[in-house]
Every structure is written in C-alpha cells, then in structure tokens.
Amino acid sequence: MKRIAVFTSGGDAPGMNAHVRAIERTAEKRGVETIGIVGGYSGMLNGHFELLDRIRTANILDRGGTILKTSRCPEFHDADQRAAAVQQLRKHGIDGVVACGGDGTFHGAHLLHVEHGIRIVGTPGTIDNDLFGTDYTIGYDTAINTAAVAIDRIRDTADSHGRVFFVEVMGRHAGFIAMDVGVACGAEYVAVPETLTDVEVLYERIVTQGLDKRTVVIVGEGDESGGAMQLAQRLESRYGIAPKVTILGHVQRGGAPTVRDRVLAARLGAAAVDALLEGQSDVMVGQAGPDLTYVPLEATWETHKAVPSYLIDLSTLLV
Amino acid sequence: MKRIAVFTSGGDAPGMNAHVRAIERTAEKRGVETIGIVGGYSGMLNGHFELLDRIRTANILDRGGTILKTSRCPEFHDADQRAAAVQQLRKHGIDGVVACGGDGTFHGAHLLHVEHGIRIVGTPGTIDNDLFGTDYTIGYDTAINTAAVAIDRIRDTADSHGRVFFVEVMGRHAGFIAMDVGVACGAEYVAVPETLTDVEVLYERIVTQGLDKRTVVIVGEGDESGGAMQLAQRLESRYGIAPKVTILGHVQRGGAPTVRDRVLAARLGAAAVDALLEGQSDVMVGQAGPDLTYVPLEATWETHKAVPSYLIDLSTLLV
Amino acid sequence: MKRIAVFTSGGDAPGMNAHVRAIERTAEKRGVETIGIVGGYSGMLNGHFELLDRIRTANILDRGGTILKTSRCPEFHDADQRAAAVQQLRKHGIDGVVACGGDGTFHGAHLLHVEHGIRIVGTPGTIDNDLFGTDYTIGYDTAINTAAVAIDRIRDTADSHGRVFFVEVMGRHAGFIAMDVGVACGAEYVAVPETLTDVEVLYERIVTQGLDKRTVVIVGEGDESGGAMQLAQRLESRYGIAPKVTILGHVQRGGAPTVRDRVLAARLGAAAVDALLEGQSDVMVGQAGPDLTYVPLEATWETHKAVPSYLIDLSTLLV
Amino acid sequence: MKRIAVFTSGGDAPGMNAHVRAIERTAEKRGVETIGIVGGYSGMLNGHFELLDRIRTANILDRGGTILKTSRCPEFHDADQRAAAVQQLRKHGIDGVVACGGDGTFHGAHLLHVEHGIRIVGTPGTIDNDLFGTDYTIGYDTAINTAAVAIDRIRDTADSHGRVFFVEVMGRHAGFIAMDVGVACGAEYVAVPETLTDVEVLYERIVTQGLDKRTVVIVGEGDESGGAMQLAQRLESRYGIAPKVTILGHVQRGGAPTVRDRVLAARLGAAAVDALLEGQSDVMVGQAGPDLTYVPLEATWETHKAVPSYLIDLSTLLV
Fold first, then answer.
1. Is the CATH number of domain B141-253 3.10.20.310?
2. Nearest-CA distance B58 → chain A (Å)
C-alpha cells in the first residue's frame, strides 16, 4: 500500500482536522502517501485531490470545521457516478480510503467496497453520536460542551427573570446531546425521541419548581413533539404558559475541539491507517471503553445505538 | 444620606452583579447602608427589599445575570402604583436610589424623581448599547464577544460546506452589536437599521465571493428587512439562493462578564453612589472616553445615539 | 438510613459542586437528609456541619471549586482525632458518609470504617486521574481542557517566534494530564514519570523540527527530570538551547466543569447514595466504560493505574 | 504609491492577524499591493518578503499570534544593517511601510525614517498597553480577559481552601494589566510599579479578610518588589504567611482576539494605509476615545502613559 486517501463528508464536526492530521502523520511514519479528497464524495467524483504532508497538516488540530471541506452529494446515489468516482481513485493510484462522517457517508463507502472492491475504512465523524459501534463519535464531546456553555448563559437570564426557557439542541434521530447537556445543566425537563414527552408532567415540573422560578427545558430536535417551538406551543395552548424558545442550531457545530475529541480523532486516525494496511475494509473503526472496535459499516446504521439508560434516569432523578 | 437602594431592571446584562457589588462596597466605605430591591420595579412596589453586605456581594462579580433579579413591570405606567412604590422606599428609610437598566428603566426613574422628588441616579445596564450619554453600556462588551465566538464557530461550518449563513444578533433599535461583530468576524455583509439593506448588493457580494465559498451575513434584529429569516426569504425568492439562518437569541445575554464590563460596572457603581451623596438626581452616570459623564435621564432616550460611522465604513471596506 | 453526610477533601476539583448537588437531590428523592461537612476532615473534627437542601444546591452545578470547602488535615493521622470526628458524626445522627477526594481522603475514610465501623463510600474527586478503579476522576476532564486551551495559546506565541517552549502540567505521580494534552495539542515531546525522559531524543526532535520552528514540550510535574525547569536546564547545559518555561499551576484547577465532569459527578453522586442505602462501605464508586464499578478503598491506592499505552504510542507516532 | 509592506515585531499580540488582514484589504481597495515581511526586522534584513492577497489573509482574523512571525533583532541597532534593510525595501519597490509592535519596533522605524527617508507608520501592537498616544494597544484587551479567566479559576481554588494566592501578570514597565484585572477580579491587593507596595498594608488586608478566607493578590511583573515570588517571600519572612504563587506568563499572550482587539486592529490597519497614502510618516496611528490619533513615533516612548487614576482608586475602594 503506497497511497491512501482521506475525506470528510456529511456535517462537519470538530476534531475532523485533528483526525486528518493523525492520518497523514501515521501514514507518513508507515511509508505511505496521503491524498486529501476535497469536498467529500463530490470531490471524489470531480478528482479534487490534494497531496497532504506534515506542513499542510500543521496547526490545524485545534481548528473546528474541516480543511478538506465537506458536502452532501446526491449524485452518489447513482451507480454510474460511483463508478466514475472509482475511476478517479484508480487514476490517482489510491490503494485505500478513510471515510470520516456519519451513516450517509458510510452508505456510500459500503457501496464502493461492495460494487468496486475499494478498500475503505470508516471513522465516526458527526456531532450527533448516533452511530452504532463506538461509544462516542468525533465532534460529539465538543458539541455537548458548546451547548452546555450556551445553556449556562441562558440559565443566567432565566434565573434573573424567573422565566421558562425551552432550548432546542441538535440530534435529528437520537437524544444523546439533549440528555447529556440536560443532565449537565440541571435541566428541569429533557424531551428526546427516546422517551414519551408528556406535557402534563412537564407542566407539573414547572409548577412545582415555582412559576416565578427559572425553568430550563432541553428539547432534542428529533423529539416527537416536533422540536422546541412546537412543544412550547402545546404548553401554551394547554396551560397558558409561554416559554421563551432558543434554537441553538449551527452554533453547536464548530469551534476548537475538546481534548477528548482531539484524542479520539488522533487515535481513530492512526487506527484507520493501520486497519487499511492490515487489509481491513468495509468496517468502521470506533472506540468502546478503552478499546478499539471494528464493526461492519452496515451495522453502524442497522443496529440501533441507545442513549444510556443511566442518563435518562439521572435526568429525572436529579430534578 | 444613610441608606440607599439599588435595583436592576429590564433585560439582564452581564456585569450587573459586579455593579451591585461595587455599589455596596462603595456605600459601605462611605458609611451608607445598601438595600437591594429584588425584581426591579415590581420588587419596589411589593417591598421586596434585602439588606446587602460584603458577604452577600462576595463571589458574584464574575457571574452573569443579576442576583437582584429583574422584571418588566407594566403596572409602573400607573401613577398610583408609582406612588405606592414611593411609600415603600420611604417606609424603609431609603434616601437615594441607583437604577440600573435601559430606557424603560430610566423612564420610571425619571417619573419617581419628577413626581415624588426621589433622589435617583441611573446607570446604563443593557447589552444593546443604545443609550445616549455613554460610549458603552454595561453588558455590551460581553454580548459582542459571546456573539463573535458563536459566529466564529458558524464560520467553521460555513467554510467547510461553502455555504451562505445569515446570523441574527440582538439590537432591537440599533445596529451596534451587528456592526461590531460584523467587523470583528469579517462578515461579508452587515444589515442594520442604520443603513439601507440592499438585496442586490448583498447578492453581488455573495456571487463575487464565489457561490461555493462561505458567506456570513450578520443581521441586526432591528433591521428594516425584519430580521434574518425575512432577509433570507427575500434573497431566496429573488435569486434562488437559500441561506442557512441562525438566530443567536438569548445565548448572547448571560455569561461571565468581560474585563471591560466588570471595570465599567465597578466604576459606574462607585460613581453612582458618589453622585447620590453629592445630591445629584435624575441623571445617568456614563463614561465617554476616559471620563465620567452625567446626562439628564430624559436625554438618554430623547437624543439619538449613532453607531460610529467608522464601523459602518469598515464593514464595507474590509470585505 | 435517615441522614447522610458528604464532604470534599484534598485538592478541589471542578465537578465537586455538581457532585454535592446530585447527592443531595438523590438523597432527597430517597427520603434521606443530607449534611454537608464544611472543610473536609477538619470540618468533621470541629463539627462544622450544614444541612443541605435543594435551594442550597441550586445554581452550583456549573461552578468550579467546592461550596463545602476542602482542606488538608494532618491531625487526622492521629487515632484520637479520628475518634473525636466519629463522635461528631454520631452526635449529628449521621448514618453514612460520602467522601469525595483522592487517595489521602480515602486513607482517612478507610480508617473510619475499619476502626469505627462508619459506613463510608468514596468517590474519585481529583484532577490527577491517578486512582485505580475508575477510568476517570471527577475534575480530570475539565483540567485537561483548561490545560489544552492554555497550551493552544502558548503555541500561538511559539509559532510566531519560532521558539521552544516547555510547559509543565499537573500530575504529581502520574502522567495522565501530560499525555492527554500532549496528544491533544500535538506536542513535539511529552515527558512523564511513566517513560524515560531522554534529553538526546528530545534534542533531536527539536532539531528535526527545525531550530527556527516552534516546539512545544509538555512536562508532567512528576517527571523524573524534576519538572519543566530542570529539564530545560538540562537541555540548555547540554545543547545550548534555552527554552521558555511556563508552569501552568493552579490555573488548571478551577473553572466551570465540562459536560463529562458534570455527568460523571452526577452519576457517581447518585450511585454513592444508593451504595450507602444498599449497605456498602469502604468502597469507591467509579466508572469503567459505561458501567459503574465498586472497588475496595485500599485498592484505589495499592493498585497502580497505568496511563493507557495507546496514549504513549500516539505521543510519539504523531509527532 | 503602488506597493506597501507590513511587518509585526516584538512580542506577538492577539489581533495582529486581524490587523494584517485589514491592511491588505484596505490597500487592495486603494489599488495598492501589500507585501508581508516575515519575521520582523530580521525578515526585512534578509529579504524574507511575501506578497499578500485576500486568500492569504482569509480566515486569520480570529487567530492569535501573527502569520507574519515576529522576532527580536539586535542587529538592527547597527546602522549598516539598517542600510542593508533599506536596500531590500527599495529592491522590492516598497513605497511605504506599516510597523506593528511596541517601542522597540518604533525605535527602528523612526531610524529608518530619519536616516533613509523611508515612509513608515507605526501601529500599537503589544499586550502591555504601555505606549503613549493611544488609549489601548492591539492585544491588550485579549490579554486582560485571558488573565481574568485564569484568575477566576484560581479564585475557585483559593475560595475552596481559604488560601492566599499571589498571581503575577505581565507588564514589565507598567501596571495596566495588573490594575485592570485586579479590579475586574476583585483582588484583595494589586501591586504595580505605579504605586508603593506596602507589605504591612497587604498583611492587614489579608488579616482583615480573615486568615481562613481566600485572598487573591495580583502582582504586575514590573512591580518594584520584583514580582510575585519576591513579594510572597517578603510576606512570609515578615509575617509567616506563605502564599501560593502562580506566574501566568505566556498563557496571557495568544488566543483568539476579543472583539475590541479585532475592531481596533481593523480600524488602525485601515487608518495606517490611508496615512501612508496621505504622505504621513514617522507617526503612530492610535485611538483616543472614539477618535483616531497620530503621534510622532518618538513621543510614544518619550512621553509617559499613566495607568488611569480611577483604576488605582477602584482597586482599593472596592476591596
């Protein structure tokens, strides 16, 4: 194996740059060249390739976003387009690929492996943490800390005014972010897809707290109520309480990665290169407890990853 | 003068706690007691008073929000209610009052002075910076830094995806926050009430930048376009470009105050106590350049405070 | 069990307040009262006890330090003094105790159990992470992030000047902090007690890097070279290169806890209360991977906890 | 004027990158090319020049340090070397120069103007704030905020342990940083070159506070006591109180610039280019209140800039 490529795809996540750096440095130590594919699958299709070296990857480890850019690439659903992308990889002499992203990214990677025998290893790069096969994804730790700092700020205001605030955090399909920050910020209620959101309980929680006291409710964007705005409207129409709503949105995404995200990104980067060199393919490299894990790409989206039950318990116990 | 009172009113602003601490410490040094009125004008009406001392004001200087709480108090538009509030002040032997807030707060304070001869001094506590008579208001510096950090994060994502982002910042009547953070974050366009928002120029700015490049547009909530969402819709309906919209909202409000806000809060707190002791009333204490200023409360809302023209110039020059 | 007590002891660690809050809230839910012992073992001796309730523990979860104060208490080495402390516990009707701290804390707790049958459960509260029986200690995650942010800043300067910087981080007996931040910050060399510090290798690393390039070397305070200052002197006397030295010191200790620290503190707080209620004693409650662990207090200091080998490998691989 | 150059010199300061960006963007708008001199005067001597454009200056505005590097250059004290540097400037067709730094930088710039007629304008780039002719220097606002955050953290520990901490902050010749952060952090004592440091008063302040209470003393490195370590030793030898000492050091230097520093850097960058175009030379461009100022370079070091007396007053009033 003489030349590998790496790309980032889907939503950007803090730690992706530390990851790219680790891949380049590891490959260099193993005597392998690293190509950066710019702009995810769309860059692969268009042959937007760039040779990476230690100078290019210097001073990026503490930067949010991804120097390799990212994109959503609907064309990749088309088998002909995937074949064209494979031509690009072959033309550039690429023997193996690291695909950093979420389940959309892994779908594409899996097809490149199955249809064209491309040796490809996935790494979990998404702030949502909703990939089976790893305790944490790259970017998740930064996102929850960013969200918590924002919610601490909102609590200052909620406290000063004795108001009810609903804060919507990211997490389209899973309540990881909402649960972790809910417990971390002492939220009075956490609404997530994993549990039934009961407006009556929520109302009682607010009333018990004291109507002139601050209440902070965290709502995962994937919550079955439809998000913070909808839940607020239900509360208002039923009980006449009008909460202030804040949608954190893209503020949660960028920023300098935390130590955990940088170290996870570094470790999985090194492991992904070594996995390729050992001949692995069609797997995601993750981490469970202190150990590396290797799961088939298909399992990452087919097997459900549950929010830890202890988090759900704490979110009601400590109110 | 033996006993003064202080209250915070309107939207909470970082630095209010440092301000309250400074007032208590200064009064103590001058041999005067300090009463904290809890909950703004509404606490004044209800006699919600608390004796402050150095223990109560310890360790609050770096906390966002306000330990004295705050509220909006529509009852205070009623002259009878104001008379009742004055009874409370007299009953508690209060000889002078510091009112920290924005123009709504100062309206009430002015009436207490005019109608009842209450000795009252205002201090500018609002993140919006839109009060005539002071270069900066307490809380403004923290708010712009909080907003800038959030926008730096959004730029990571905008850069990684080559996308157009519209970010709405606070400032109902004035574009201070938008202009300062727009220049600070290198925004491609800044839309504020003070200037004409020209969708064509905005579109050209985006196109010149390159449609696959990140563009960050800062929109003051008071912008005549009606805010970020409306402006985004105008851009989309006219040119087919659909920006991502983030409304920073209450995230901008809380948090540990910056050094500038703490020092300003400390200085104006000490000066407000001394102004009361010197017999001043119906004035706001502010700062212009290195100097303290004293302007009639009425002037703070009657005279327009303009966003510095150099900021507006820089926002287009450095694009 | 009707009444339990909690105290924090040894060096303060971010998350201790979130921990105390979780203990009080859990106990309340279980129908048990919580007493806060103020000032660690010394407070226990002097009967410095305070009844905790949900108001006292509100709004502390995001504060560094510990509202229960802490101290080093040499008197506790004396058996008579320990007996006197036990009298205080009995006098106040305390049926169980949670002791949050490091190995010094646990030594004392173990003796209270062995000598007097006090039901006592330890929880790992130290930024050093050097306790066997838990993957992470409360405070560690915050400390490494604080250190990393400081080192990112130092790297700005090191880069701008092309200089060699030695930064000493905490960790008297173990190199956890140094290794995690070394990998996270892309340090050119990490000197820890666990590995042999080789000045020749260090010198070569600096020279390879380029003498006019920035080099950042992380030194654990427990390193056998004796710390950053000594290592810098050895480098200078042997090779004539004079690095700038920064000792991070107590800056690493305080600050708002990270989400991981808050959640760990919450979980272990709840688990410690439940362990007492189940009749456990003389154990530390910790976390390994996703699971709670219970290890005899003695094991926490008798069994060596090793810095993960993958961290040590990454620290040289990614240079 | 067709081509100007810019360099950064002396200690790096946050905001220098925002400054370089503003210079390049302004020059471009005026139809002038910008050359970046890499490594300060030493880069000028060696002809280490780089053409700047909007791509090179993109995404640097929120980065600490300086992309143009900096250095101390003792050779520049030699008139022959200065003549050689001027040759380089002429060879590269440079018509004007912006020199960003402190008084050392301005000495050199002044000589280039006087000896060789180089058109050169200085801008204040130093975290120390000790240059006459401007209210604030680029980098100062960031440095005081970084220091304050660190001291807030130390206060957590000081509070938890009831200990006396001495914290040394930067400021070789002036106490600006110490005074601003002392007031901002509620320090019990602030020792600066500008005032007499009285160990007896300091001791009384600590004792009054309560010996088991936290005391935080801020010491400017330029204090006549010789710094925090020396002052601590004097306190210990005379009164037997042994404070913990932390020297913040280079941690204060880097990091993302605050909004004030970015806006100041932007404004002074634009103004410096325009000053060159208007034919100005041998002056520093600064800001006083809302206005731009232009002072002869010589005045910046010959005229003493005093720490505002209100800060000194507040540092004792609010204790």
1. no
2. 17
